[in-house]
Please model this.
Amino acid sequence: MSQETTSSVRTLILSFLALMVLLALTVWGSFIDVGAWRATVAVVVAIAKALIVMIFFMHLKGSNRLIWTVAGAGFVWLSFLLILTIGDFVTRVPIGPGP
Model:
């Protein structure tokens, strides 16, 4: 049996505010020229937002180890796909304009 956990309104409001701050950081970061680091900063902020959603809104905080393992495996799989996609994008040779 898993232990039923309920999130307090305060916790949900704080996590919502954290997500809004991270959203503002994402929008602000899209206007700042940081060169090649733009994608890296965006991915780091996206990972932080995903962790907040997983822990608080998916109620992982306080759940048993099996649920954490399954959620962690999904997160690792997503990270694996992102790393492969970014690796493919970085190693491509730019093609000039067509004939």
